[in-house]
Amino acid sequence: MNSPLPRSAVAQPPQFSSHDFRQALGQFATGVTIVTALNAQNQPVGVTVSSFNSVSLHPPLVLWSMANSAASLSVFMACTHYAVHVLGAEQKSLAEQFASKGIDRWAGVLHQPGQTGVPLLDGAVAAFECFNRSRYQEGDHVIFVGEVEHCSHQNDAAPLIYHAGRMK
Question: Could you report the per-residue pLDDT of 72-102, keeping only the tens digit for each?
Fold first, then answer.
């Protein structure tokens, strides 16, 4: 099914600035997630992520990405499992807490170990416990593909949305 491109096929240099690219991307509304895992010392780690998508139903795969500059990148590169939590509209402050630097992101956060041992956040609209199946270095990010081993969801819950640089 893969048809390789001819060797002469290369992308043309962008004809826009990084600012213009970010502004254009901001017009696509996404959900807001928090991805959690355990570090090598078995302590919880978590980060707010808006780059989350489904990949496949069979097998059940999802993807998300993280900047190469993220402080917790090494934890997610090395862990065997992580959980992706889709946040509800009322969880904006939680998303902001897990996006902050220099604080204890877990202060006051209710969570429990999931079936794979990773921390599961209370109150998420949906949660996906994933095996850390694949990692791809692309540009200034790493793309993670997770094979979903367990999932849960709430019916009729409004999601938290990220659009034009703001959570709504």
Answer: 999 999 999 999 999 999 999 999 999 999 9
**The pair of three-digit structure tokens given for residue 145, joined into one six-digit string:** 């593909």
Domains contained in the chain, number: 1
Q: Give the residue from 54, 75, 57, 56 showing the smallest Cα distance to 66.
A: 75
Q: If you search the block for the tokens 């990949």, which residue do you land on?
A: 55
Q: What is the CATH number of the domain that holds 105?
A: 2.30.110.10
The answer to the question of residue 2 being in a domain is no
pTM, full prediction: 0.92
Boundaries of domain holding 80: 30-158
Residue with tokens 């780690």: 45
Q: Is the Cβ–Cβ distance between 92 and 73 less than 8 Å?
A: no
**Alpha-carbon span 135 to 42, nearest angstrom:** 21
